[in-house]
């Protein structure tokens, strides 16, 4: 399982003196980008294809509080992937130094062409690297319909 360890910084703490909500998002993003870079999908290589990852949603579940002074380990597993790589779904778990699970997040996203600003397939060389990530027990092949699971649509003013 891919993991990344973090030290809770003063700026990661909120008024309640525990890890702030947005720090969880920061830690997950850093974990994902570290995996991509270590897999050869760094900014330079993504730029060659004009690709960028985009988040559709992140659903957090909090079980216990994290406080400064102890490390936080964030895991990354592949929960879903479309056949062409356009859509992906990740599972992140947050663990304390003893391996206790303090939080969990399900995240779904896709790949966009940064010039056209449209969803695109993942090139085969990247798809194979992406698909090599450890999968969850409930891994699934994603379709466009899976991205509409929560039926949320914009409502203009």
TrEMBL record:
A Pfam match: 4HBT_2
Superkingdom of the organism of origin: Bacteria
* InterPro entries per the UniProt record, alphabetical: 4-hydroxybenzoyl-CoA_TE, HotDog_dom_sf
One GO molecular function term of this record is: fatty acyl-CoA hydrolase activity
Q: Which SUPFAM superfamilies match?
A: Thioesterase/thiol ester dehydrase-isomerase
Task: Specify the protein name.
Answer: Thioesterase
